[in-house]
Amino acid sequence: MSLTPIIHIPYLMFFAINVAHLLIKIFMALSPLTLNLKSTNKPLYMIVGNRDLSNNSLNGPLPDFLIQLRSLKVLNVGKNNLTGLVPSGLLERSKRGSLLLSVDDNHDLCMKESCKKKKSFVALIASLSALLVILLLLLGFWIFKKRKVLMSSNSKREGSKASKHQIFSHAEILNITENFKTIIGEGGFGKVYIGILQDQTQVAVKRLSPSSMQGYKEFQSEAQLLTIVHHKNLVSLIGYCDEGEIKALIYEYMANGNLQQHLLGGNSNILKWNDRLNIAIDAAYGIDYMHNGIKPPIVHRDLKPSNILLDEKMHAKIADFGLSRVFGNEIDSHISTRPAGTFGYLDPECQRTGNISKRNDVYSFGIILFVLMTGRQAIERVDGESIHILEWVSPIIEGGDIKKVIDPRLKGEFHINSAWKVVEIAMSCILQIAAERPDISQILAGLNECLSLEMVQKNNGRERSIVEMPSVCVELESYPSAR
Ligand SMILES: Nc1ncnc2c1ncn2[C@@H]1O[C@H](COP(=O)(O)OP(=O)(O)OP(=O)(O)O)[C@@H](O)[C@H]1O
Ligand SMILES: [Mg+2]
User: Fold this and answer.
1) What EC number(s) does this enzyme carry (predicted)?
2) Is residue 320 annotated as a catalytic residue, yes or no?
3) Is the pTM of this model over 0.85?
4) With a 6 A CB cut-off, is 317 part of the ligand 1 pocket?
């Protein structure tokens, strides 16, 4: 049976308090206190005579000077709290019959010397038990500390076991992907394959093309770092492979693919307005965690609908966070062949100044919001010309006709107020001066408000027929031209 200090310590403390209490009582009994007359407040010498002092809340030992009071014929101090030894002179006088002495009902008052010895013995036992209690407490504390150290070293060991599991060999990668059998997508870093781990968990294996890794030395440490970042709205990095030229990232599998396919890929299931709001909110939670939930914060630098993945319940998670760190970029390393960010979503200020900040992600998120609302690509080719979504949407917003802004495939199934609110939020995200853009936490709060607006109006069962234009006080000159 193991001694569980957490349970025993309060019990031991209770015991120690009791022993301490007992010790104090004994100490008081043995110390030469003076008589204290609580009920009368008079000094004892004034009231002695033939009086009855019984039941008077007297405490302390009987003072020796009482022996000197020859006129004292009757002394009744019964039913008090007197302590110590009755002076021998008083006992002798009582024996001789010159004093009628009554000391009954004083629990701690002794008539003989042996009683005092007994008390010293009790005091000794009490001190020893108090010492024992202190020793037990110290032992309990020591065991508690030892268990804590043991537990933390166990968890460290488990952690190192886990981190071992995160490193996959090339053979393991071949095994889990069945020799790279099924491709689920392809991006700038290389192809993405479906994989199944030993415990039957489905994963997505991103095999990195050697060109995307050119000049980058810290793949392992950066990938290792990303495996410890977990949030319900971030696609988790389960592990990585780093065997010479062979490099791969193993991610949790997202059954419903990316947002781009659902929104723009000719998917017959049109995302409803509420679904779009929920996806925007999920994504904002993920970004908020990257920006404000971890230290040092992670700036994604490549936010776009194809990096927002959807699980089997259509919950959205941000993919490829931290990849700009894993791969470096031309601003940081001057070597990478791959520019950070994607045209259409890339913050023009970042392009111009090269400064990287959270507000670059906020800009990209603003474009994502416009893509979500309109169902249009960030850059579309019209009559052989590339048109950026902001060039297309801004004049319509200025015209105040929200129904022309929102994806026509929704067939008007959205609420005007919540739609305007999303427009307002999106406009604030793409402000020319990065410092004037809101933090993602404010954007998140705004989007949650939109969802509640939507819910309230749905519950009221009334559609607003009058189109109200909210205060969209945003400079519209700032949108970039298509690249
Ligand atoms: N964890 C995953 N679960 C399911 N599908 C995934 C996962 N990761 C990636 N994919 C699919 O693979 C596709 C390619 O992903 P990848 O990140 O390589 O490129 P991308 O994000 O589309 O573009 P880019 O390389 O420009 O960032 C994604 O669009 C997505 O459809
Ligand atoms: Mg991606």
Assistant:
1) 2.7.11.1
2) no
3) no
4) no
